[in-house]
Specification:
The complex is a heterodimer of chains A (about 475) and B (about 475). In chain A, strand 13, helix 16 and strand 14 form a beta-alpha-beta unit. Chain A has three domains: about 140 residues, 3-Layer(aba) Sandwich (Rossmann fold), CATH 3.40.50.1980; about 110 residues, Nitrogenase MoFe cofactor biosynthesis protein NifE, C-terminal (Rossmann fold, 3-Layer(aba) Sandwich); about 130 residues, 3-Layer(aba) Sandwich (Rossmann fold), CATH 3.40.50.1980. In chain A, the strands form three sheets. A six-stranded mixed sheet of chain A has the order 1-12-11-10-13-14, with helices on both faces. Chain A is α/β, with parallel strands linked by helices and about 475 residues long. A five-stranded parallel sheet of chain B has the order 12-11-10-13-14, with helices on both faces. In chain B, strands 3-2-4-5 form a four-stranded parallel sheet, with helices on both faces. Chain B has a four-stranded parallel sheet with strand order 7-6-8-9, with helices on both faces. In chain B, strand 10, helix 13 and strand 11 form a beta-alpha-beta unit. By secondary structure, chain B is α/β, with parallel strands linked by helices. In chain B, helix 7 packs parallel to helix 10. Classes of the chains: A alpha/beta (about 475), B alpha/beta (about 475). At the A-B interface, helix 1, helix 2, strand 3, helix 3 and helix 4 of A face strand 1, helix 2, strand 3, helix 3 and helix 4 of B. Bound molecules: iron/sulfur cluster (2 copies). One iron/sulfur cluster sits at the interface of chains A and B.
Chain lengths: ~475, ~475
């Protein structure tokens, strides 16, 4: 680390750098490590990673095998929408108690599956392991196999014991479960002989606030066919059909790169990385998809769509740009993909990123971040509130982008805030999403409330635009 | 049966033990919480607490990984304590266990003691609290933490003229009002915990990593010499009761009361304060009581149409049930996710019509509550935000009380206790019943008399329903 920050922990120094341009990448920069004990990491756990990826599968039953808290804190927290069943919004927990911890929880788990089967008829049940289950040694695989034999459905264990790694390990566990699901389709259905060259899967979209549907409209106009998003608004059957795709497009590489690689190996499906966040990336991505079909008609339609939408959006965006340009942003988000796309989007809007951090970014992602970020930008991995506070203040950021845990901190520091998380209620992807994003940035940065905060500090020379009210003195 | 499924808890109506411990510790001055276990638990709890109070909530974790899970987490915990001290300079660190630490059998007290002898931290107090998530719910975790604090600090019993007031989880606004009441009676007191400032901090230009306020450790140390303890929490049992601990070790007389919500329960508190202080009930409260009675009469016909499902933290559910009972809002479902032997007993002590048929459930879940809401034509949900799922699915409005409330703002500054707070809360209930009726009655009448073949809209109130 360049400068010394007074209360940055020694163990954390290697995870923080000031960006230097035109030099070799700072090799000492660390990421993807275990969190420092006592550092108040903002990270969630393996189980959380697995849950967020699999949860949007709308017609599956998700059973959390563990004590109650793990299920309680994650019930219905993701804004993934469904066009059909809403079964996935329930949180089923085996609610392990002391005696289960002592005697093991396998019996309870299989009894739980029996109860589900007696009242519902799911095709697939995912069973998530939590930390304790890993320690008491319950054999989820064995329970699952027994239940499969008994009911003729898929029961898929998700190896997501919370302590075995971090959120990214959870993404992997989820992808393994999805692969497991895909592999079980073949026997019952006739194999697809000729693949549709225009059929593909969209990996890494979770239909937050309807984002899958938003881009699906583009796909329809282009004349390409999305078999399923993985996993936004997906069904078990659609996922089993995914191997019929001619190619995969992958967004949010943090969680889905692994799956894309495996689908390439197992099913020979090539993939391309895309992103529907920010105008530049949207345009590139639409062209990438069109090119992959090698279909002139598709390419032509895609260009028409791009021209129409890009023009319209650019016009609307200009109004916002004038109001927000020149402000500075601190970014602290879950994965590297999101951080990268945010830096680009802010660049587009004329905002400078002065701090960029992620909870679980990977080495190659941090290299891209270093390329994109300006000289002197603070780059940090697995930050804690103390560091966020330090660098937001040091860099004088006007805006923080983060998750809900970071929001109150931003507000206490008098800094505007953008929620970039799973709970969002408006789409941020596609052309419409890019506009929504600018709108939200403008709304928070230019809210009238900030000027009152300045006023509250009597020693601050800048009292904002707030005029104090003079009493009407009739008899003075 | 308490739940639709025996082996499944579907849509939990409780949280785990350590989050209760965190909430209690957040009301102690200059205190940091250290959770011994894997990272995820503490992150989830931080998220839960900070979205309710809209305050930054820092909780450290020893972030155990695979290796430590096998070989023990002593080194991690010690390093974590050192790091917390470096960043936060707290006076107290409360160490809580999670399921993981309990399952692998970590001795947090021994580790903390050896940390203290190895390091020069004589002014730091480390209070350890066993809170296995699988052991009990947030309710017990909260009191277990308070009891641990009292046991740790309240060593001597120099007689003093103050009283101890220990409360179940209330809002910061509730606690502010409670302090005002105590002062109005001229009582000097120690309030444990005191989240009135820590979890509802005013905006200041200077940010404090550990918010100002909270019960001082010197004050907890004085609790053994008090003339009496008031413990607000009817369901607290002796094993986890800080008030009982003070009685057992120092002979401080213990008065256990329900949350002062509603006329009778507020009366009980004021009568006791009057007795303990030797002062008459101030005129201010006599007037407030009169105003509440006046309003209860004004609203009784609206309230009489209310059929409520009350759920969440057992203490809050009990107190809310009492308020409903006093006002003729019929408690159809009285439910808590916490397992409690005495919950039903206490509900039985309240008198309201239809008690025999009311569903009184402990250790239950929202899947069960939802089914009962539908079956019983409930038109009012009262409880925390987790009830929003039932609200959405069944179209029944939800008035919020308790923790967590993260789909609306302002939970921390709403007052529910005393005559004034109870009345504000009651008005919310009444107005919700009214709104719901106004939204639906035209449609209902049309459907019933004009087009009787069409189904009556679900969840609507009408004399026909
Ligand atoms: S139930 Fe146990 S494991 Fe789950 S969040 Fe609570 S403490 Fe952690
Ligand atoms: S116990 Fe493990 S799985 Fe559950 S919340 Fe904690 S870290 Fe995550």
């Amino acid at each position: 680390m360049g400068k010394q920050q007074s209360n940055v922990l020694e163990e954390r120094q290697d995870f923080i750098i000031y960006n230097k341009k035109n030099t070799k990448k700072q090799a000492s920069f660390q990421c993807d490590q275990q969190s420092t004990s006592g550092a108040v990491s903002q990270r969630a756990c393996v189980y959380c990673g697995a849950r967020v990826v699999l949860n949007p599968i709308t017609d599956a039953v998700h059973i959390i095998h563990g004590p109650i808290g793990c299920a309680s804190y994650t019930w219905d927290i993701r804004g993934s929408l469904s066009s059909d069943k809403e079964f996935y919004r329930n949180s089923f927990s085996t609610d392990l108690r002391e005696r289960d911890i002592i005697f093991g929880g396998e019996k309870k788990l299989s009894a739980a599956i029996d109860e589900i089967m007696a009242t519902h008829d799911p095709k697939v049940i995912f069973v998530y392991a939590t930390c304790v289950v890993g320690v008491i040694g319950d054999d989820l695989g064995a329970v699952a196999r027994q239940a499969e034999a008994k009911y003729g459905i898929r029961v898929i264990p998700v190896q997501s014991s919370g302590f075995a790694g971090n959120k990214s390990s959870g993404y992997k566990a989820a992808c393994d479960a999805i692969l497991d699901l895909m592999s079980s389709a073949d026997s019952t259905r006739p194999p697809v002989t000729a693949k549709d060259p225009k059929a593909f899967n969209f990996l890494g979209d979770f239909n937050l606030a309807g984002e899958t549907w938003l881009v699906k409209r583009y796909f329809e106009e282009m004349g390409v066919k999305m078999i399923t998003a993985i996993t936004g608004d997906s069904t078990c059957e659609a996922l089993q059909n995914a191997p019929n795709a001619s190619f995969n497009i992958v967004q949010c590489a943090g969680s889905m790169h692994y799956l894309a690689n495996h689908m390439k190996e197992t099913y020979g499906i090539p993939f391309a990385k895309i992103s529907f966040y920010g105008i530049e990336d949207i345009v590139d991505s639409l062209r990438t998809i069109a090119a992959l079909t090698r279909d002139d008609d598709v390419i032509r339609r895609t260009e028409a769509l791009i021209q129409r939408e890009a023009e319209k959006t650019a016009f609307a965006l200009n109004a916002y740009k004038k109001r927000i340009a020149g402000k500075t942003v601190a970014i602290y988000v879950g994965g590297g993909f999101k951080a990268i796309s945010l830096i680009k989007q802010f660049n587009d809007l004329g905002l400078k990123s002065v701090m960029v951090g992620t909870q679980t970014g990977q080495k190659d992602e941090y290299e891209v971040i270093q390329d994109l970020a300006e000289e002197g930008t603070v780059i940090l991995d697995d930050a804690n509130p103390t560091e966020l506070e330090n660098f937001i203040k040091e860099k004088g950021a006007d805006l923080l982008v983060g998750g809900v845990k970071e929001r109150p901190l931003a507000y206490k520091l008098g800094v505007a805030f953008i929620d970039h998380n799973h709970e969002r209620k408006h789409p941020l992807c596609g052309f419409e999403g890019a506009l929504n994003f600018a709108k939200e940035v403008d709304l928070t940065l230019n809210s009238p409330v900030w000027q009152y905060l300045k006023q509250s500090d009597k020693s601050d020379a800048d009292h904002g635009n707030i005029k104090s009210i003079e009493p009407i003195e009739k008899f003075a | 049966m308490n739940r639709n499924y025996v082996n499944l808890n579907t849509n939990p109506c409780k949280m785990c033990m350590p989050i209760g411990g965190c909430l209690a510790l957040k009301g102690i001055e200059q205190t940091m919480v250290m959770m011994h276990g894997s990272q995820g638990c503490s992150t989830y709890m931080r998220r839960h607490i900070s979205t309710h109070y809209n305050e930054p909530v820092d909780i450290a974790s020893s972030a155990l990984n695979e290796k430590e899970t096998v070989y023990g987490g002593e080194k991690n915990l010690k390093k974590g304590l050192a790091n917390v001290i470096k960043m936060y300079e707290p006076k107290i660190i409360g160490v809580l266990t999670t399921c993981l630490a309990e399952t692998i059998g970590e001795d947090i007290r021994a580790i903390s003691e050896s940390f203290k002898t190895e390091n020069n931290v004589s002014d730091l107090d480390i209070v350890t609290i066993a809170t296995p998530g699988y052991g009990a719910s947030q309710y017990e975790g909260y009191f277990a933490a308070l009891k641990a604090l009292v046991t740790y600090f309240a060593k001597d019993a120099n007689p003093s003229s103050h009283i101890n007031v220990i409360t179940t989880l209330m809002t910061p606004a509730d606690q502010r009002l409670l302090k005002e009441m105590l002062s109005d009676f001229g009582l000097s007191f120690v309030l444990l915990p005191d989240i009135s400032e820590t979890l509802d901090a005013p905006y200041e230009t200077q940010y404090h990593k550990i918010p100002k306020g909270g019960t001082k450790r010197e004050d907890i140390a004085r609790m053994g010499g008090a003339i009496a303890t008031i413990e607000i929490g009817q369901l607290v049992y002796d094993e986890i009761s800080p008030g009982y601990a003070l009685y057992a070790t120092h002979g401080v007389p213990l008065h256990r009361l329900p949350m002062p919500i509603g006329i009778t329960q507020t009366d009980a508190l004021l009568d006791l304060l009057s007795k303990l202080s030797g002062n008459a009930i101030p005129d201010k409260y006599v007037k407030q009581r009169g105003r509440m009675l006046d309003a209860m009469v004004d609203s009784h016909k609206y309230n009489g149409e209310g059929r409520a499902a009350i759920f969440g933290d057992p203490e809050i559910v009990l107190a809310t049930t009492a308020l409903c009972a006093e006002n003729g809002i019929k408690p159809e479902i009285i439910a808590t996710g916490t397992q409690s032997k005495t919950f039903k007993q206490f509900v039985e002590t309240l008198s309201f019509s239809g008690k025999e048929s009311a569903a009184i459930l402990d250790d239950t879940d929202f899947d069960t509550i939802q089914k009962l809401v539908r079956e019983r034509g409930v038109n009012l949900l009262i409880g925390n935000s987790d009830g929003k799922f039932v609200m959405e699915k069944e179209g029944v409005p939800l008035v919020r009380i308790g923790f967590p409330i993260h789909d609306q703002v302002g939970a921390q500054r709403k007052c529910y206790i005393g005559y004034e707070g109870s009345l504000r809360f009651l008005d919310d209930l009444t107005n919700t019943i009214l709104d719901h009726k106004h939204m639906h009655y035209r449609r209902n009448v049309i459907n019933t008399y004009f087009k009787p073949t069409e189904a009556v809209e679900k969840g609507a109130i009408g004399y026909d329903a």
